[in-house]
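Readers of this paper often ask what the protein records in our data store actually look like. An entry from our holdings is shown next, in its original layout:
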Amino acid sequence: MEGIARAFEVAGVSILVVGGVWAAIRAVTNYRAGRNVYQGIRSDFGRALLLGLEVLVAADIVKTVSVATTLDNVVILGILVLVRTLLSFSLDVEIDGMAPWRRRQVEAQEQLAKARVEGGPAGPPSTNGGGGGI
């Protein structure tokens, strides 16, 4: 089991390294194209950080399960998962500029506005089964 935990740790760190390199490459490409480098690198590297943290949380869970399950180990795991989850949440909000539960509402409003501009239906789809009659 420790080998599996080690594999998750290596994968998590690899994601962070590859994500950092990828973000740097895209930043150079964006700079040469005259686009906003700052927002792009924040978004690219932030997403790599999120994925890397999630994999590292999985490594912590596997590691805790593989050793003797004591109250101390479970408390330490809980604290690690809580800290990494809060960090992931704050990174997600920082990258997107809004809380995750607001994202769908904003996307729905944008789609509705786009449909109105294009002359499509102005409201939500009908829920009466599409019969259209009485």
The helical segments are 2-32, 37-66, 71-96, 100-117. Residues 75 and 81 are 10 Å apart (CA to CA). Residues 2-117 form one domain. The chain has four helices and no strands.
